[in-house]
Each structure stands twice: as C-alpha cells, then as structure tokens.
Design brief:
- The chain is of the alpha/beta class.
- The protein has 3 domains: about 5-160, Thiamin diphosphate (ThDP)-binding fold, Pyr/PP domains (Rossmann fold, 3-Layer(aba) Sandwich), CATH 3.40.50.970; about 185-340, 3-Layer(aba) Sandwich (Rossmann fold); about 350-540, Rossmann fold (3-Layer(aba) Sandwich), CATH 3.40.50.
- Helix content is about 40%, strand content about 15%.
- The strands form 3 sheets. It has a 6-stranded parallel sheet, sandwiched between helices. It has a 6-stranded parallel sheet with strand order 9-8-7-10-11-12, with helices on both faces.
- Strand 17, helix 20 (about 505-515) and strand 18 form a beta-alpha-beta unit.
- Helix 1 crosses helix 2 (about 30-35), helix 3 (about 45-60) crosses helix 15 (about 410-420) and helix 9 runs parallel beside helix 11.
- The longest helix has 16 residues, at about 75-90.
- The protein is globular.
Length: about 550
C-alpha cells in the first residue's frame, strides 16, 4: 500500500462520499487511489467551484465537504472558496498536491508556499512530510473542521510522499463522538437575572443558531417568554418567519424597520452571533444596552460588543438551561407594530401584470411556489439584500447566504452541493448576471451530475449592488456597467432547458414547472432596478418623519 492509498482509506473512515476538484500531475497517485475506493471524485471546471461546492455542502450537512487541487495555480484558485468557508463557519477540508520535497527549498516550477497562503484562512493546516503521520493528519483535519465553530482546514500532500510505500501497521484512527461541554451555571444564573430585570429584551440569532437542535431550543425559549427574534442573514430560519415573534432579518447596509426594535430594547440576547457577519455597530444603537452572549465560543473583543455575561458551551444546551432557570411570566408584547411594518413592506413588493420584473417581486413569486422545506441559495449582489430582507424563511438552512466573506459566484456551485446533499429537496439558486459569470462554467458540472435544481439569473447588465451603494453615497455611479451573453442560448448550449419569460403569468408558469420538475433548468429574468432606490428613499422618509 502506498501513502495515497492510506490517505484515501482515512477519508473513507471519515465518511467522505464525494471529493470535488481538478486533477493534476502532482495528485496523480491520490486520484488513482480514489478510483479504487468508494469515494466519488467529481471533476469540476474551476477549483473555486470545487471549494464552493464543498463549502455549501459542509454548511448544509454539518459534515466537512472536501475539495482537491494540484499545486501552484490549482491551490491559489481554491483560496476564495476556502476563505468563504472560514468566515461563514462551514466545515471544509481542502487537499492540495505539491512538488517533491527535494525541490521545495528553492525556486522551482509552480512551487509556492501553499501552507503559508492557507494559514490565515483555515483553522488548521499542514503539509505531510512523513507517511507515518497520515492517519493523525486526516483525523485532525476533519475533527478541527467540524467542531464548533466549524470552518476550513487544509492538507498538503507532496507527490513523492504520496507514492511512498507505507507499513502495514498504519491504519485510519478510530472516531468517537464528541460531546460539547455544558455552560457554567453561574453564567446561566446571571443571565437569567438580567433577562428577568429587562422590560424589552430582543434576541439576535446568528449563524450558530441554525443548527437544528439550537433552532428548536431557541424557538421554544422565545415562545415561552414572548421575546422577539431578529435573525442575521446567515441566521435566517433559526425561527420561522411565520412566528409572531419573528422580526425578519437584520443586517442591511442602511436603516430598516427592524432597527426600531433594537433601539427600543433594553437587553440584547445574542445567540450564535458572529461579528464577521454583521458589525454590532449596526444594531447596538441608542442608549447603551446590556448584552447576553450565548455561543459555542467566547465573544470577540469589540468596542460595540461588550457582553455583561457570556454563556459558553453547546448552544442548544445553553438555551435549554437558561430556559429552565428563567422563572418569569412572558413579557408584554411590545414589538407588534414593528413586525407589522416589516412584513407589510415585504408584501408590498408584488409585481402587477403590466409592470417590469424586479427582484423583490421575483423573490415573492419564488416564495409562493417553493415548498416550506425547499432551499433558496443566494449569490452576492443587490438581490442578496432583497433575499435577506424579503424572503420569508420557515426552517433552518432554508435560505443560504454567504455573509462572512460574502463572495460572488457561490450560488451556482452551491446548488450542486445542495442536490448532492439531498437529491430530492427542491432547490433554487438565485444570482445576478455578475455573479453568474464568475462560475458559469459549473453548468457543465451540474449537467454531468444530473443535478435537478432551478437557476435564476437576474439580469440588469450591471454590478447592481455597487451601483446602488454608489448612488446612495455619491448620487451617481461609475465602473458598474457590463454586457452579457444570451443566457438562454448559453444554457441551451450545455443541454439545459432555458427560459426567458416575458410576462408575469409566463414567469409564474415557468417557475412552477421548473421548481417541481427536479431537473436542471435556467431562467433568465431581465430586471428593473428602480425599486432599489424606492426602498431606501421610503425608509429615509420614514425615519426622518419620526
């Protein structure tokens, strides 16, 4: 047995089913070892696509997605997707090839220090330079990647190490379930006292709160004490937007109605909240507020985020124990008018038959068709803001948004990941024309894998979010206009059924047919952007009038 074969046996032990990547000379032994294993190697068309697939797969399943590249340019192409997993707290293991050890000490063809490059965007990374450590390295990469808070790890396998013969005594390490510790009881008691003394507490639910157990515990806690909940973009679905306690999403780059609730509140209960996702300066407004931090890890040191008490431990257990400790009547309902204002605004953005298509109208139509358990994956652009604000989400991981790194190009690979994770789940990948062309080559991968999801390309021939922000800041825009191919013809050239509906009725019928077909479809929707400024102007007028 050679080292590459041992490596693959260790991956099998970890439960890996798929590896996404681009083959190269330096990972030849590894690829041939994979070909004899139960693991399916899926060649993609760009390493960034591989990393994004692994990223979203990890986020949806809790099990590390795995991506592979060769050395040099292959490894550098992985970086954006690896960084996204790092800041979005998605478990991912990246594997890169490398040249032989005998040429790493000097300048050499395609040789760069990949481990140094990966260091700031991974929880842990290493190069295997001795075959005997392979079982430990693989086990550690997966353990570190998947433990809270999850993220990316990286293993480099030089080509000469991969081909070395290993001793028969080397085997994959045993894997045992980890139990996260319960929080400190004194912290639970102190937090309960703060909550009992509050008049208008509010919960901000972040990325950590979408774990299923945490979401269940959070929902029961909020409902028992009638505490309203605002979710960050990545926390959408931690509590169903059908709940009277839901205040939708918080995190837009401008003041929205939900901020009124934070201004009126006197205690913030931050559950699974990541500062990388949304600066606390955006919600910690008005009079200084007391903060209860509930998370897997201690709070980051931040001027605008200084918790009075930190409950550190398993999130679901922490919420449950706090629930048990808190012996109070439910709080009076104080947020109802704010909730009504939020959801009236969301529902106001329908599209009359004669109006041009616009993003919030398309989102509303998708929501009316996609089942409650369906998944909407957002790319990054102006549509991300509308999805975060207007797409009502009813279950954890019912809406995937990258908002740590917030990288364009994630939605199309993300759709592939979602269908690999659950082939029967209805999935819509929504993107702008800018993000679409960043990874459009993965249409071929999606088609080859026979993944059945719906791709929506919102086309305004523009980097729309940047124009929106430039216009808001400067009154004009520059450097955002672009041209595009005919996306319908492009989709059809890949053998994908593609559509460009012209009327509201046609769009409704097309969405209905595509979403429930469980086949790969592409819908290009030309959109009008006037609605962007209409939203911000209406919000400005409202807050000026107060």
């Amino acid at each position: 047995m050679i080292a590459a074969e041992l490596f693959v046996k260790c991956l099998e032990k970890e439960g890996v089913k798929h590896i996404f990547g681009v083959p190269g000379e330096e990972n030849e032994d590894f690829l041939f070892a994979l070909s004899k294993s139960k693991i399916l190697f899926v060649p993609v068309r760009h390493e960034q696509g591989a990393a994004f697939i692994a990223d979203v797969y990890g986020r949806l399943t809790g099990r590390a997605g795995v991506c592979l590249s060769t050395l040099g340019p292959g490894a550098t192409n992985l970086i954006t997707g690896v960084a996204d997993a790092f800041l979005d707290k998605a478990p991912l293991v990246a594997i890169t090839g490398q040249g032989g050890l005998e040429r790493l000490h000097h300048e050499s063809h395609q040789i760069i220090d990949v481990c140094s490059m990966m260091s700031p965007i991974t929880k842990w990374n290493t190069s295997i330079q001795d075959v005997s450590i392979i079982p430990e390295v693989v086990r550690k990469a997966f353990k570190v990647s998947q433990q809270e808070k999850p993220g990316a790890t990286h293993i480099e396998l030089p080509e000469d190490i991969a081909g070395q013969t290993v001793h028969d005594s080397l085997h994959p390490l045993a894997i045992y379930e980890q139990r996260r510790p319960n929080p400190n009881q004194e912290s639970i008691i102190k937090a309960a006292v703060l909550i009992a003394q509050a008049d208008k507490p509010i919960i901000i639910a972040g990325n950590g709160a979408i774990r299923n157990r945490a979401s269940d515990a959070l929902t029961k806690f909020a409902e028992s004490f009638k505490i309203p909940v605002a979710c960050t973009f990545m926390g959408k679905g931690a509590i169903s937007d059908r709940s009277d306690l839901s205040l939708g999403a918080v995190g837009l780059g401008f003041k929205d109605y939900v901020i009124e609730a934070f201004e009126q509140s006197d205690l913030i209960i931050a559950i699974g909240y990541d500062i990388a996702e949304y600066d606390p300066q955006g919600w910690n407004t008005g009079e200084p507020k007391e903060i209860v931090h509930v998370d897997f890890e201690p709070a980051e040191v931040f001027t605008d985020y200084i918790p009075n008490v930190e409950i550190i431990g398993d999130l679901a257990s922490s919420i449950y124990l706090l629930h048990q400790e808190l012996d109070i009547d439910p709080f009076p309902i104080w947020h109802q008018s704010i909730r009504e204002r939020i959801f009236q605004s969301i529902h106001a953005f329908s599209m009359p038959e004669e109006s041009p298509f616009h993003v919030p109208g398309v989102i509303q139509m998708v929501r009316s068709i996609l089942p409650d358990h369906g998944l909407l994956i957002s790319d990054v652009g102006s549509h991300k803001m509308w999805i975060a604000r207007n797409y009502e989400t009813y279950c954890p991981n019912g809406c995937i948004i990258s908002n740590g790194l917030a990288s364009m190009g994630i939605s199309l690979p993300g759709g592939i990941a979602a269908k690999v994770a659950d082939p029967n789940r209805p999935v819509v990948s929504m993107m702008g024309d800018g993000g679409a062309l960043m990874n459009i080559q993965e249409l071929e991968t999606a088609k080859r894998l026979n993944t059945g999801f719906t791709i929506i390309i919102l086309n305004d021939d523009n980097y729309g979010l940047i124009e929106w922000k430039q216009t808001r800041n400067k009154g004009l825009s520059t450097g955002t206009k672009i041209d595009n191919p005919d996306f319908v013809q492009l989709g059809e050239s890949f053998g994908i059924s593609s559509y460009r509906p012209q009327t509201r009725k046609e769009l409704q019928e097309t969405l209905q047919k595509c979403i429930f077909s469980n086949s790969l479809n592409l819908i290009e929707i030309p959109i009008s952007v006037e609605v962007n400024e209409q939203l911000t102007q209406s919000l400005d007028d409202y807050f000026k009038s107060k």
